[in-house]
Specification:
- The complex is a heterodimer.
- By secondary structure, chain A is mostly helical.
- Chain A is 65% helix and 5% strand.
- The longest helix of chain A is centred in the N-terminal third of the chain and has 39 residues, at 26-64.
- In chain A, 36% of the residues are buried.
- Chain B is an alpha/beta fold.
- In chain B, the strands form two sheets. Chain B has a six-stranded mixed sheet with strand order 6-7-8-3-9-10, with helices on both faces. Chain B has a four-stranded antiparallel sheet with strand order 2-1-4-5, covered by helices on one side.
- In chain B, helix 3 packs parallel to helix 6.
- Chain B is globular, with a radius of gyration of 18 Å.
- The chains are: A mainly alpha, B alpha/beta.
- At the A-B interface, helix 17 and helix 18 of A face helix 2, strand 6, helix 3 and helix 6 of B.
- The structure holds adenosine-5'-triphosphate (ATP) and magnesium ion (MG).
- Residues 56-57, 105, 186 of chain B line the site of magnesium ion (MG).
Chain lengths: 455, 265
C-alpha cells in the first residue's frame, strides 16, 4: 500500500459483508427490531407482575393494618369485697367460685361512674344502662376475674383498668361502622356511638397499638376484639422447629447419599423419580396421610404441632432434597478429584470440600422449604389444627403434643366468620405471616452472602 | 524438533515400580485403552506422549484408580504396584492414592487458602505432628512447586485467586506435600511459562531421587529433557516404549516417527 492510496477511502469491497458500516443493513435492522420487541415484552411482563404485587400488598396492608390498633376504655374499678369475697378471708378457692357474671356489674358501675364524672347523660343520648354496659367487650369481665384471682390481696381497692371496647365501637373508630349502619345494626345503636364519642372527648376512650393481637389466643365468634394470633404463632413456631430439626438432617443426608455415594442403577433412578413426584403431590394428600398414619394409626393427638410438624416435614423433604442435590451437582467434579487425588476418602472429600461449597444452595433450599411449610394450610386443616384453641400450648417438648393452631389456618378460620371485624384480623395475621416469610427470605440471602463471600 | 538433545541417559535402577499387563479401559462403548503392557521403573521419569485423545490421561488415571470415580468407566487387566495388584478387592483406593499422587490436566485448587491447599493432604494423612511441622511442610512443598516466592506473603489468600499457571504449580506443590511414592503428572506444564516450566522440570528431576514420576506431555522437547523412558500412545494402543533417547533418535515404529517428526497428531 502506498501513502497516496492510504488516504483515499477504500472503495467498498465486493463480498458477503459489503456496504457501509455507518448504515444498518436490512438484516441488522430486523435483528434490532426483534430485540426491541423482546425487551418490550419483558418490560411489560415485569410491569404486570409488579402492579399485581403492589395492588395485593396495598389491599392487604389497608385492610390489615387496623388490626394492630385497638380501642380501649379506661376505667377505675372498685373491687368490691362484698361481691368478690363475701367471707373476707381471701381464700383463693372461694374467690374462684365467683364467675364472670359476678364481675360484670363492677365494670358496669365503673363505667356509669366514669360517665357521671365526665357529665355524660345517658338519658340525653337515649341509651339504656344495659346498652352502655354492652359497649365494653365481654372479655373485660374475664380479664378482671383473672386479675383478682392473681392478686386477691387487692380486693377492696380501686384499680385502674384498660378494657377492650366491643368490636363495633372499635370499628366505628376505624371507619367500619358509621352512624347510618348503626341504625340498622342490632348490636350497636347511634346512641352508643355518641356515648363513645363523649367518652373519647373526656379521655376515657382511646385507640392505640394493640399488643394483645400478638399475645392473645383466638376469640369466640362474638368477641373479635379479643382475638389474637398468639396461639397460632406459637403453633407455627413449634411446627417450624420440628420441620427444621427433622427435614434438614434427613434431607441433606439423603441427598448426599444419593448424589455422592449411591450407585447409579434402576433402584436409585426409581427413588429419584419418586422424590420428584413427591414434590408435586398436592399438599392435602399429605394431610390425609398424616391423619391416617400419625393420628389414626400412631395415635398422636389431634390438632397438635407434632402431627402438623411431621406432615410438613414430609412435604418439605422433597424440596430440600431437590435443592441440596442441585447444589451438590453444581460443585465442579474437579474439586472431588482434587481431594481424592491427595488421598482423601469419599466422605472426607464430601464433608471437607463439596458440602461447604454447596452450603449456600442447601440453606436457600431449606429456608424456601420452611417458608412453604409456614404458609401451608390444607394439610393442617385435615389433622384438626382448624379447631378453636384458647389454651396456649406448654413449652416444648410437651407443648408439641398440646393442641395449637397455625397462622395460615387461623387466617382461614377468621375469614369464615360473620363479623367483619374478623376480616381485619385475618388481614393482620396475613401481614404477620408475610413479615415472617420476608424475614426468612432475608435470612436466606444473608446466609448465602456470608457463605459465598468467603471465596 | 531441532533443539532436541538426546542426552546420555543413565537409568539408575531396573526395579519395576508399576507393572501393567493387558490393560483395557472402556468408557461405556468407547474402548479407550487397548491391551497395554508396560513396566514403569522406580527412580525413573517416564513420559507419555501421543496425539490428543489417544488415551494418555485414561491410562494415567488407571494407575491410581481415579477411574473408579467415573461410573461408566471399566478397567480390566492387571496393574501391580510393588508386586501388589492395585485392583485387588482388598485394596482401598484411598490408601493407594496416598502412595500414588496425581497432578491433573486442568488446575483444580481447593477453594480454600493457599496454605490450606497444601496442608490438606498432610493433615488428613497425619504427616505433621504440630503447627510448626505443618508450616515447614507447606513451605518446602511450595518451594518444590516453584511458587513459594510468589505466594509467601499471601498464604491466606484463596488458591483460586491465582493465575492459571500459578494454580497449576500450587497443585504440583499440593501433590508433592503428601510425599507419594509415585507421582502422576498430566500435562503439568501446559499452562506454564518457560521459567516456571524449567523450575518444574528441575523439580521432576529432583523427585526422581526418591520417587517414580510419570508425566504426560505434548512437548517433545520436554519429554526429551526430563524423561529417561518414553511411551508413545496412539489410538489407545501403546505403540512403543523404551529409552527416551532411543525413541527420539531411532524409533522402531513408523507411527512413532511420524508423530515425533510432526506428521501425525
Ligand atoms: N469421562 C469420560 N467419559 C467418556 N469418554 C471418555 C472420558 N474420558 C476420556 N474419554 C475418552 O477416552 C479417550 C481417551 O481420552 P484421554 O482423556 O485419555 O485422552 P488424552 O490422551 O489424555 O488426550 P489429551 O492429550 O487431549 O489430554 C477419548 O476418546 C475420550 O473421548
Ligand atoms: Mg489428557
Amino acid at each position: 500500500m502506498t501513502d497516496a492510496s492510504a488516504n483515499t477511502p477504500a472503495t467498498p469491497r465486493p463480498g458477503k459483508h459489503a456496504g457501509s458500516l455507518l448504515e444498518q443493513n436490512a438484516r441488522t435492522l430486523r435483528r434490532n427490531a426483534a430485540e426491541r420487541r423482546f425487551r418490550a415484552y419483558g418490560l411489560s411482563a415485569i410491569v404486570i407482575g409488579v402492579t399485581a404485587l403492589v395492588v395485593l400488598l396495598a389491599s392487604i396492608l389497608s385492610q390489615g393494618l387496623p388490626a394492630f390498633q385497638q380501642t380501649f376504655i379506661t376505667l377505675e374499678v372498685h373491687l368490691d369485697e362484698a361481691k368478690l369475697d363475701k367471707n373476707g378471708n381471701r381464700d383463693i378457692e372461694e374467690i374462684k367460685k365467683v364467675s364472670t357474671f359476678g364481675y360484670a356489674p363492677l365494670i358496669k358501675t365503673a363505667l356509669s361512674t366514669r360517665a357521671g364524672e365526665l357529665g355524660i347523660s345517658s338519658e340525653d343520648l337515649g341509651v339504656s344502662d344495659k346498652e352502655i354496659a354492652a359497649m365494653i367487650s365481654k372479655e373485660a369481665a374475664a380479664e378482671l376475674r383473672r386479675f383478682v384471682i392473681a392478686n386477691p390481696d387487692r380486693i377492696g381497692e380501686t384499680v385502674e383498668f384498660e378494657f377492650l371496647a366491643t368490636g363495633r365501637i372499635d370499628g366505628y373508630y376505624k371507619g367500619r361502622v358509621t352512624m347510618e349502619s348503626a341504625e340498622k345494626d342490632s348490636n350497636i345503636s347511634p346512641g352508643q356511638l355518641q356515648f363513645a364519642d363523649a367518652l373519647k372527648e373526656g379521655g376515657a376512650l382511646s385507640t392505640h397499638f394493640n399488643w394483645g393481637f400478638f399475645t392473645m389466643a383466638d376469640g369466640s365468634e362474638n368477641r373479635p376484639e379479643a382475638a389474637g394470633i398468639g396461639v397460632a404463632m406459637l403453633g407455627s413456631l413449634y411446627m417450624m422447629i420440628i420441620v427444621l430439626v427433622l427435614a434438614l438432617p434427613i434431607g441433606v443426608a439423603a441427598s448426599i447419599y444419593l448424589e455422592e455415594f449411591a450407585p447409579k442403577n434402576w433402584f436409585t433412578d426409581l427413588i429419584e423419580v419418586n422424590i420428584s413426584n413427591l414434590a408435586a403431590v398436592p399438599s392435602i394428600v399429605f394431610g390425609i396421610l398424616g391423619l391416617a398414619i400419625f393420628i389414626n394409626y400412631a395415635g398422636l393427638p389431634q390438632s397438635a404441632p407434632i402431627v402438623g410438624g411431621l406432615v410438613l416435614t414430609l412435604m418439605t423433604l422433597p424440596t430440600i432434597i431437590i435443592a441440596t442435590r442441585a447444589s451438590l451437582k453444581s460443585v465442579p467434579p474437579s474439586i472431588r478429584d482434587a481431594a481424592l487425588g491427595v488421598g482423601a476418602s469419599r466422605m472426607q472429600s464430601v464433608f471437607h470440600h463439596v458440602l461447604p461449597l454447596a452450603m449456600p444452595g442447601i440453606l436457600t433450599g431449606t429456608i424456601i422449604g420452611l417458608a412453604q411449610a409456614l404458609g401451608e394450610t390444607a394439610p393442617l386443616m385435615l389433622i384438626g389444627m382448624v379447631a378453636f384453641v384458647r389454651e396456649f400450648p406448654a413449652a416444648p417438648p410437651e407443648g408439641f403434643f398440646d393442641p395449637a393452631s397455625a397462622l395460615p389456618v387461623q387466617v382461614y378460620n377468621w375469614t369464615t366468620r360473620a363479623d367483619p371485624a374478623f376480616v381485619e384480623r385475618a388481614s393482620g395475621a396475613i401481614i404477620v405471616l408475610l413479615a415472617f416469610l420476608l424475614c426468612m427470605n432475608f435470612l436466606a440471602i444473608i446466609l448465602r452472602r456470608r457463605f459465598e463471600r468467603r471465596w | 524438533m531441532n533443539d532436541m538433545r538426546p542426552l546420555e541417559r543413565i537409568v539408575d535402577t531396573d526395579t519395576v515400580k508399576i507393572s501393567a499387563r493387558n490393560v483395557q479401559v472402556h468408557y461405556g462403548e468407547t474402548h479407550a485403552i487397548k491391551d497395554v503392557d508396560v513396566d514403569l521403573e522406580a527412580n525413573t521419569v517416564t513420559a507419555f506422549i501421543g496425539p490428543s485423545g489417544c488415551g494418555k490421561s485414561s491410562f494415567l488415571r488407571c494407575l491410581n484408580r481415579m477411574n473408579d470415580t467415573i461410573d461408566i468407566c471399566r478397567v480390566q487387566g492387571d496393574i501391580l504396584l510393588d508386586g501388589e495388584d492395585i485392583y485387588d478387592k482388598r485394596v482401598d483406593p484411598v490408601q493407594l492414592r496416598a502412595k500414588v499422587g496425581m497432578v491433573f490436566q486442568k488446575p483444580n485448587p481447593f477453594p480454600k487458602s493457599i496454605y490450606d491447599n497444601i496442608a490438606y493432604g498432610p493433615r488428613i494423612h497425619g504427616l505433621a505432628r504440630n503447627k510448626s511441622e505443618l508450616d515447614e511442610i507447606v513451605e518446602k512443598s511450595l518451594r518444590r512447586g516453584a511458587i513459594w516466592d510468589e505466594v509467601k506473603d499471601r498464604l491466606d489468600a484463596p488458591g483460586t485467586g491465582l493465575s492459571g499457571g500459578q494454580q497449576q504449580r500450587l497443585c504440583i506443590a499440593r501433590a508433592v506435600a503428601t510425599e507419594p511414592e509415585v507421582l502422576l503428572m498430566d500435562e503439568p506444564c501446559s499452562a506454564l511459562d518457560p521459567i516456571a516450566t524449567a523450575q518444574v522440570e528441575e523439580l521432576i528431576d529432583e523427585l526422581r531421587q526418591n520417587f517414580s514420576v510419570v508425566i504426560v506431555t505434548h512437548s517433545m522437547q520436554q519429554a526429551a529433557r526430563v524423561s529417561q523412558k518414553t511411551a508413545f500412545f496412539h489410538l489407545g494402543h501403546l505403540v512403543e516404549h523404551g529409552e527416551t533417547g532411543e525413541i527420539f533418535t531411532n524409533p522402531r515404529d513408523p507411527r512413532t516417527e511420524s508423530y515425533i517428526t510432526g506428521r501425525i497428531g
